[in-house]
Every structure is written in structure tokens, then in C-alpha cells.
Design goal:
It is globular and about 45 Å long. Helix 8 (159-174) packs across helix 9 (191-198). It has 2 domains: 6-94 and 209-268, Rossmann fold; 96-207, Rossmann fold. By secondary structure, the chain is of the alpha/beta class. Helix content is 44%, strand content 16%. The chain binds D-glutamic acid (DGL). Residues 10-12, 14, 40-43, 73-75, 116-117, 120, 148, 184-186 line the site of D-glutamic acid.
């Protein structure tokens, strides 16, 4: 048994969709979450800045001696994981490979849509990963930059969210995709809106869920040791605590146990 924590981070609230799934299927695990609420959004940053942010987020979580660090952010996973993974002596997992693998298994017509932040889509990482699984896949990518601010502000099924989603998703509907990767961990919060627009026949891949399943797989296959008991999760953020807690509970669909603490992430920059 290994009771050390799993460190999870995102630019803000989105990674909590991943925490929720880990809590659901691996309830014994102890999670330390860092939401970089002071520097959100990540999706509009340059690759260079993203890599620096990712390094500081990992340096912060490393203090807790985690057995695994999860980059629960499509943007940081797509841009920075390959660069940073060999710089640290800790197992680091991103969301791109688990979601691409799930999409590859789900598609029947080989036409896969990917939606994410501008940075994730411009990185081409989802497309590249899907094509490395099967080069015959036809991948249609669409940046949806308005989704993160809508989610962060609680517009989860508002009229405006439907209007914007209709515009973003129209090219994927025309391309007749049968599977769409929600390539940003904020998007599961508006899954109903997306599902209503694209229709039931399209499978939506939730990256938080897929990464949680990947952790369970790694535990079952002995690559990561399971925790013997749950001693509590901890939440850290880099900006105001007050505005975080209510929204976080909405993402987690449960009360946050214990304190949410604000930290100075700049101290972890190199
Ligand atoms: N939740 C993040 C992602 O999965 C990014 C949102 C943002 O900070 O732009 O890409």
C-alpha cells in the first residue's frame, strides 16, 4: 500500500472534474489539488509561459511527496507534458493520451472531433496522438475560447452558452464526427449543452473521467500502488479563497472537506 497523495493541478476549477472522478472510482486515494486561480486562463498563453507555469505547479505539488502528479488541464498537458516529464523524478500523467485512447476505442466511423482552448488546439497534440493510434482517423479540431470564462462564471446551461456552443460545434456537426474529445477539463460542466447540440449519437469523451480510469488501470496493473486508507484531500489555490469554494463544490458535486488554502505560486517559479 502507498498512502502518499496523488497531486492534481489545473489552471483553476476545471481539474476538479478530474478530482471528482478519482474520488468516485478510487475513494481511498488522498488528493492534493492545486488550482492556479491567480494565473487562469492558461488557454491563451504562449507555450513558453505555459511550460514555466507547469514547472512551478509541479514544484509546488512535489513538496507533498506525491506518488503521481496529474496534469488535469488539457492545455498544460498538450503543451508542456513532453517537455517537463523528464525533468522531475516523479510519475507525471496528462489528459491527452487517456482521452485520445478512449476516443479511438469509441469511434465507429473514424471521424473524431476535438474541442479545447486555443493553445491546446494550436499545439496539434490531440490530432497527433490520435493519428499515432490510427493514421486513418479524420480529426476535426475546434478551439472554443469562450467556454472557459462561461464555466468559470457559472453559465452552465444559460442561453448564451447554447448560442456560443452552436456556433463552435457547427463545423464538427458538418464534418459528421461520431465522437468528440472534450479536450479541456472545464468542458464536462457544459456537457449537457454540448450533448443537446451535437445529438445523442455523438459520444463525448470527458478527459477527467478518462484520466481517473487510467490511474485505476495503472493501480490494477501494479504501476502505481493503491492507498490503503483515505486520510483526506487538500485544496490549494493561488488567488481568493472565497470565490473558489462555492464554485469548487459545484464542480465536485460535494462539500470540500477541510480548508482551502491560498499559496504564493510565484515562489515556485525558476
Ligand atoms: N482547464 C484547462 C484545460 O483543460 C484550461 C482552461 C484555461 O485555463 O484556459 O485546458
Amino acid at each position: 500500500m502507498d498512502n502518499r497523495c496523488i497531486g492534481v493541478f489545473d489552471s483553476g476549477l476545471g481539474g476538479l472534474t478530474c478530482v471528482k472522478e478519482i474520488m468516485k472510482i478510487l475513494p481511498n486515494e488522498n488528493i492534493v489539488y492545486f488550482g492556479d486561480t491567480g494565473r487562469v486562463p492558461y488557454g491563451t498563453r504562449s507555450a513558453e509561459t505555459l511550460i514555466k507555469y507547469t514547472v512551478s505547479d509541479i514544484r509546488f505539488l512535489k513538496q507533498f511527496n506525491p506518488k503521481l502528479i496529474v496534469i488535469a488541464c488539457g492545455t498544460a498537458s498538450a503543451t508542456a507534458l513532453d517537455v517537463v516529464k523528464n525533468k522531475f523524478d516523479v510519475n507525471i500523467m496528462g489528459v491527452v493520451v487517456p482521452s485520445a485512447s478512449a476516443a479511438a476505442a469509441a469511434t465507429k466511423n473514424g471521424r473524431i472531433g476535438v474541442i479545447g482552448t486555443s493553445r491546446s488546439i494550436n499545439s496539434g497534440k490531440y490530432e497527433q496522438t490520435l493519428k499515432s493510434i490510427d493514421k486513418g482517423f479524420k480529426v476535426f479540431s475546434k478551439a472554443c475560447p469562450m467556454f472557459v470564462p462561461l464555466v468559470e462564471n457559472g453559465y452552465l446551461d444559460a442561453k448564451v452558452t447554447y448560442m456560443i456552443a452552436e456556433e463552435y460545434l457547427a463545423p464538427l456537426i458538418s464534418a459528421k464526427v461520431d465522437t468528440i474529445i472534450l479536450g479541456c477539463t472545464h468542458y464536462p460542466l457544459i456537457k449537457k449543452v454540448i450533448g443537446d447540440i451535437v445529438g445523442e449519437s455523438v459520444t463525448l469523451i470527458d478527459s477527467g473521467k478518462e484520466v481517473a480510469r487510467q490511474i485505476r488501470f495503472e493501480i490494477e496493473s501494479g504501476k502505481v500502488e493503491a492507498a490503503g486508507e483515505h486520510s483526506g484531500n487538500r485544496f490549494y489555490i493561488s488567488d481568493r479563497v472565497e470565490s473558489f469554494t462555492d464554485m469548487a463544490e459545484m464542480f465536485l458535486e460535494t462539500k470540500i472537506e477541510g480548508e482551502v488554502e491560498k499559496i504564493d505560486i510565484e515562489k515556485y517559479m525558476v
